[in-house]
Amino acid sequence: MSTFDAIDDDRPTVVFAYTIKGKGLATEGHPGNHAAQLTEAQMRELAAASGMDLEDPWVTFAPDTPAGRFCAETAQRLRREPVTDHAVAEVPAELGFTPRPQISTQAALGRFLSDLKHVAPEVAQRVVTLSPDVATSTNLGGWINKTGIWSPAGRHDWFSDDRERVLRWQEGTSGQHIELGIAEVNLVSLAGELGSTGQRWGQPLLPIATIYDPFINRALEPWTFSLYAGGSSIMVGTPSGVSLAPEGGAHQSFNTPSVTLEIPGLTSWEPASAQDLEWTLLEALRELADPDGDSAYFRLTTRPVAQELAGVPEDPLLRERRRDQVIAGGYRLSARPAAEDEVTLVGAGAIMTEVIAAAARLESLGVRAGIVCLSSPSKVFRSVQERSEVRSSVRSAIADELFPAAHPAPLVTVLDGHPHTLAFLSGVRGDRTRNLGVTEFGQASSVSQAHALHGIDTDSIVSAALDLVGR
């Protein structure tokens, strides 16, 4: 207390407390005392030396002592009035815009944020985007132009006279994007803090952070801890996979689909099309707005994909059914029923282009191949895990709908990531399975070369299917 009394309150002060680990105990200074446990006799000895009673370990300081008065004053100073909880406005089911015929899911993310501000401004005003020096390379430019950069004190834009620059870098206290520099740990830590504002201050925010997919590994521990502590967020890993071929192995990723599937309180998504991205991002925002909802990880890509391949139904009823399936974790792209499959091809994300091409090639060879597109392997995994539970719970039948037990067929799973991620599908109904994916470090190449190198190109998928059907 005398040390605290001597502190100059007009300036920051650091108190260095030099201690001896386990002082006065049998473990004092011992190199193994980090995990050492005291015996009851040692605990009683410690209590006596500290003027405490082991039978009443939570006794407070006497109120008329300096320590007691200090604690009481601190408690009064830190006490705060109850906060009023404010709810996030209702998140729409759709935004109502038709995507460009050829677009990547990363580009669709930028389009989504701009459209959200137009269609649902009450929701968009609670969105805060973050990036570790990759705002423009993860397609946040349009959103930044509309909302600005947050800064406690606006700074002069030294490049404002650059006529060729499309991005308007305007800083101020009302901005909705925060740029952190190349500091992924800071990124996820801030995302967790922003995701805690609802429970702390009654004003929920919806943090969406973009990060190059392989670099989530740098920040996995603090991000996981923030999720554990209740700091919800949406993390967007983009670009991802070996489809980012020209940048080489340093920026390509392989383990992130599996890692993010395994984190509690987190739903991992890998949408294949712009429409799938819109539906799943809106669902993720709904979850984020719910105090008991999940956080989300999105794995996107810079690879443009023909949107017609998604086969989104035009009929309103069938379209809504497709949306339900996408949110549940996946859907069947084949026009024929599962009962006619000789083999079923399963993929996720941008690699669906190769999966669909492989199915067409197999058809030309006389092999009937079904196609299943997974929007969220983690949702399908949960469905498999929960289907045999006896307790009352909210369960999804998506795994049984995609892979009906009455119509088994060999499976070829394909992912621009580690094949282990989808290996659990063999347990849905006991099918023979070939899991294709990335198991080696990448190289600088074209996209087609990268896919062939890792065995996730069309020819590799066709060969795996022919092996399973004995052709």
Structural write-up:
With 471 residues, the chain is an alpha/beta fold. It has three domains: 2-78, no CATH class; 102-305, 3-Layer(aba) Sandwich (Rossmann fold); 328-469, Rossmann fold. Helix content is 35%, strand content 12%. The chain is built from 18 helices and 15 strands. Strand 12 (343-347), helix 13 (352-364) and strand 13 form a beta-alpha-beta unit. The model has no long low-confidence stretch (mean pLDDT 91).
Set down the secondary structure blueprint.
Layout: H1 2-5, H2 40-49, H3 66-78, E1 102-103, H4 105-119, H5 121-124, E2 127-131, H6 141-147, E3 149-150, E4 171-172, E5 177-179, H7 184-194, H8 197-201, E6 206-211, H9 220-228, E7 234-237, H10 256-261, E8 266-269, H11 274-289, E9 295-299, E10 305-306, H12 316-328, E11 330-332, E12 343-347, H13 352-364, E13 369-374, H14 377-386, H15 398-402, E14 411-414, H16 426-429, E15 433-436, H17 447-453, H18 458-469
Parallel strand pairs: 2-5, 2-6, 3-4, 6-7, 7-9, 8-9, 12-13, 12-14, 14-15
Antiparallel strand pairs: 1-10, 11-13
